[in-house]
Design brief:
Layout (H helix, E strand, L loop, with lengths): L16 E3 L4 E3 L1 H18 L6 E4 L5 H9 L1 E2 L6 E2 L4 H14 L12 E2 L7 H10 L11 H16 L3 H11 L4
Parallel strand pairs: 3-4, 3-5, 5-6
Antiparallel strand pairs: 1-2
Helix pairs in contact: 1-4, 2-4, 3-5, 3-6
Length: 174
């Protein structure tokens, strides 16, 4: 006997994603709304209130989701980067382990990373619901080891990656 499919926390439709952090199953429609609202609200919270942006068109999964959320304007002075929660949590952990300064920053006058609080799993679920294929992340053996450690933290304490990134932001390293 197969388990009954999870239902959307909001509307009761079949879910496409379960958020451990939110403790909610979401259907395609509500996953899209949640991510779009979160990604756009990060711009407002950091005082980037423009509506048009230049996208860093590198073909990554982050770039694909930004195409759905934002309109591109080649004349805009603000370029949107697409580093995700995993990228920033790896950078913060690496900083605390080795003291190396992170290469990624959340934002400046010329660029912003609106996906810094959005996980690869959320992005993959969103793109799958849109019929887009995702590419596996290319990481080194060391990054894989650190990512396994971070995912273990996330499993034990949902929101652990986000807490790491917020801590890195608070102390000014990202």
């Amino acid at each position: 006997m197969q388990p009954e499919p999870k239902k959307c926390y909001i509307c009761g439709r079949e879910s496409v994603f379960y958020s451990e952090y939110l403790k909610q199953a979401l259907c395609k429609k509500h996953l899209e709304r949640m991510l779009t609202k979160r990604i756009r609200s990060t711009l407002i919270s950091k005082n980037y209130k423009q509506r048009k942006f230049r996208l860093s068109s590198d073909g990554s999964d982050g770039y694909k989701i930004e195409k759905f959320v934002f309109r591109e304007d080649a004349n805009s002075s603000l370029k949107l980067m697409n580093f995700t929660l995993e990228d920033f949590s790896l950078s913060v952990l690496d900083y605390f382990l080795t003291g190396s300064k992170p290469k990624q920053k959340i934002g400046s006058k010329t660029f912003f990373n609106p996906l810094y609080n959005t996980s690869d799993l959320e992005i993959a679920a969103f793109l799958a619901s849109k019929g887009e294929k995702t590419k596996p992340r290319k990481i080194t053996k060391r990054q894989k080891y650190l990512m396994d450690f971070i995912r273990d933290i996330e499993k034990r304490r949902p929101g652990g990656m986000l807490s790491m990134v917020k801590m890195g932001e608070k102390i000014g390293i990202i």
